[in-house]
Design goal:
Elements (H helix, E strand, L loop, with lengths): L9 H20 L2 H16 L25 H8 L6 H14 L6 H11 L10
Helix pairs in contact: 1-3, 3-4, 4-5
């Protein structure tokens, strides 16, 4: 399904795209316990308290490294606000933006090279 959104707020668009991608990716990679916590959160909101905060699955339990789009400082900072992401998770994206600016899809290779050069990636790590 293709979703088109017009907005003057790029962070709203980034957030929507991320939400839609994680909705598809989540069920494929998350553990049963993360599924259960999410389901309980949805059920609690529906039947008990609609103002209850929605549980956000912990993708740091599944992936060791994250390649955040280096489309601009605001994009990186907004995505790095996730309370489970550490400063080190956003560092490759910040450094790629600093060194190469917005390079679109090529930035993935720069981020992976940065993680490797820092000696942070090991055989079997998931990105």
């Amino acid at each position: 399904m293709v979703e088109i959104s017009l907005s003057k707020d790029p962070m709203a668009i980034v957030g929507g795209a991320l939400r839609s991608n994680l909705t598809i990716l989540g069920p494929l990679v998350l553990s049963a316990s993360e599924h259960l916590l999410y389901f309980l959160s949805v059920a609690w909101r529906k039947w008990v308290n609609p103002k209850w905060p929605m549980y956000v699955p912990d993708f740091t339990k599944v992936f060791e490294h994250f390649c955040i789009h280096a489309g601009g400082r605001a994009v990186i900072e907004e995505l790095a606000k996730n309370p489970r992401l550490k400063k080190e998770h956003a560092e490759p994206s910040r450094m790629t933006l600093h060194r190469f600016e917005n390079t679109s899809s090529n930035s993935l290779w720069y981020k992976l090279a940065y993680i490797e050069a820092k000696g942070r990636i090991e055989k079997g790590d998931r990105v």
